[in-house]
Amino acid sequence: MEYHLKTPVDKETVRKLKAGDTVYITGRMVTLRDEGHARFLAEGGAKGVDLNGAVLYHCGPIIQEKDGMRTVVSAGPTTSMRLERYEPEFIEKTGISVIVGKGGMGSATGEVCVKYGCVHGIYPGGCAVSAAMKIKRVEGVIWEDLGMPEAMWLLEVEDFGPVTVNIDAVGGDLMKEKQSERLAKV
Amino acid sequence: MKVPEEKQYALVPAEGTGRINDKIASDLARFVCLLAVSLPDDVKKRLSEMALGETSDGAKKNYECMLENLRLAKGLKRPLCQDTGIPCFYIKAGSGFPYVGDVEAAVKKAAADAFLLVPLRPNAVDPYTGKNTGNNEGTCSPYIDWEIVPGDGLEITVYLMGGGSSLPGFAAVLTPGEGLEKAKQLIIEKILEKGVNACPPLIAGVGIGPSADIAAKLSKKALLRPLDSDLAEVGDAELAKELFDKLNGLEIGPGGLGGRESMIGVNVISGVRHPATFAVALSTGCWATRRGVIRFDKELNVSSPDHGDFV
Question: What angle do CA B70, B73, B78 make, to 5 degrees?
Answer without folding.
Answer: 150
